[in-house]
Amino acid sequence: MSAGLLAALLVGTASAATIKLRPQGAEMLRQVQAAIAALSTKELPVTLDTGSGPVLVLGGAAPFNPDVAARVVVVGTERRIEFNPQGPLPLADAVRAELARELGLSAWTPAAARTRLSGADLNGDGKIDLSDLALLMNNYGKTGVTVGDLNQDRKVDDADLQLFSSQYKP
């Protein structure tokens, strides 16, 4: 997933994360909310913002291959994730698996979400390590929207370095 797409899907700081998805229909909304609730913890509450992001639907205009649980379709400029209602996985499992891919999570667990959605995994590899620190330091002292602005105050400074330090576990 591109860094721009991930940034469009996630709004996160060290203390909270919001996932931007547009589930269509009561069943999709319920499944997405349940999946996100499984990631949320007191340390990193994860919430759903339905105002933007990819559209999630049950079914699609074209028939599904029976072995496919979900597919991504682009219609104009809109990304759609279509779930196969008769797919090989129960819908709850298909939603978690597809959203894990979409969000770049190594697993659908609170620990994986904390690493990926906390903001300190700057290169999107599922780890908070020295390569992320290098990205932060490369932008240290810069202003504007840039990699390393963990507290989203439009500058990379000591506050961001402290947030990174609180999440980095050698």
Automatic annotation (TrEMBL):
For the EF-hand domain, which residue ranges apply?
Answer: 121-143
Q: Which UniProt keywords apply?
A: Signal
Q: Where is the signal peptide?
A: 1-16
Short name of one Pfam family for this protein? Dockerin_1
Give the residues annotated as coiled coil: none
Q: Check the record and name the SUPFAM superfamilies matching this protein.
A: Type I dockerin domain
The answer to whether the entry has keyword Signal is yes
Superkingdom of the source species: Bacteria
Protein name per the record? Dockerin type I domain-containing protein
Q: Which organism is it from?
A: Deinococcus hohokamensis
